[in-house]
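Figure S4 source data
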Amino acid sequence: MNYKHTQTGYFIICVALALVSLFVFILSSSDFEPIVFAVMLLIVLILISFTTLKVTIDETYLRIKFGYGIFWKKFPINEIVSARTVKNHWYYGWGIRLWLWPKMVIFNVSGFDAVEIKMKNGKVYRIGTDEPKQLENAILQAIELKIEEF
């Protein structure tokens, strides 16, 4: 069972474009300061890295990767206990979030749909997606295949 899907965060792209426009205006209307330019560039690069979320599943891992790959995580399929479709609250936000109650880590670039996975060690993760049922089914199928191997 292989699964691959990339979700695009159009709102984050719009924010990045607006921010670049603002930074260009600021830089063009003032003296060039290398430190200011470096900070602006770093902010834009970090923001751009959250414009897409790629989810892939193969025989051994569920992998997620934001944008061009600075932020990524992989979950061993044999460590995943369950997967279910959920709705994130609006205040959970986008990006990578550590939420303390309920305790979980959220990976999201757009929207409120997600798939919540629980690991054998008790950790809970939510992976944002624009096709929650397909992702949930792919994870559950991968878990079943791992169980059948043993």
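Figure S5 source data
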Amino acid sequence: MNVRSLDVEVALRAALAAVVPLAILLSIGRPEWTPYAAFGGMTAIFGRGEAYRGRLRTVTVATVGLVASVALGIAAAVAARGSGGGAVGVGSAASAEASAATAITALMLVVVLVGGVLAVNVARLAPPTPLFFVFAVLVCAAVPTPTAEVGVRLGIAIGSAAFAWALSLSGRLLRRVGSARFKPLRPPAPVRWSAVRDPAVWTVIALHVVGALLAGGIALASGLGHPYWAVVSVCAVIPPAGAAHSLSRAWHRVLGTAVGVGVTALILWPDPAAWVLVIVVAVAQFGAEVLIGRHYGAALVFVTPLALVVAHLAQPVAVGGLLVDRLVETALGCAVGILAVLAGRAIDARRGARAGR
């Protein structure tokens, strides 16, 4: 199978994994549960082009990571609600409650960053980034969650992830029946337990943790409405352990997001029906997966409407504020990400000099 047909195969799986659970939620009148279905469905983007014996491991680890991230996000949301986060308070009491909620979310973020980077490097996941785990924990932490709904919201994530898991492995029988028509898939990379002791992996963990907390803190202090987008942008810019510390990804993300915000404005300002937005999610997911391996900036033109439409379905807000938040926080996160890349270069250079001596 050539690269183009493989991209289409992956994109179709990802689009189905995204749109089917969303359509079910809309049919029962619960669009506010959209994030849990969306993050479970992200299981389908893992294991791209991998032979099925390796893909089974990859998508299983991804499923566990995504569901665990959603669970931690829900726990943070419930804990914040219990501590008074989001409630109306007065003076120092309200400030203390907000600080407690922020501290809980920050703790969950650090847990997901450390666990996510280690899982990516030990299990050799593709894509090799904790970004999706981080996105899941922060969005779910930001959605107000009644204690009585914890089980059903987590169940939606589990069900959506299971559906995406099955989709990811569904082509195995087809390839067995018509094996002569398909080129071999990429052989699986072996599990790398030594990554737990690799200084380069822990350097990446440190860059993610410091960069994410810095970007999130600045976004919160600035009063921006969706500070998790700044954090996610940092994670998108920092390269995997062992990869070159390039700045091009940051520029691609800013420019792609700017164009994607314009596309989203054309979609959301006419205030279309919810079923139209579900179709937009399917098209955007398909386009993103087709382009992500070819040009990151072009893929962001689809990723941005995908993220914003899902956010709007879950928690409808003024469209103008939503778009401005996305653009400003992406620029903020990329700026912090660039600092992290430069720090990574300096650390690599120092490590190389020590090795030379």
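The chain has 13 helices and no strands. Residues 1-192 form one domain.
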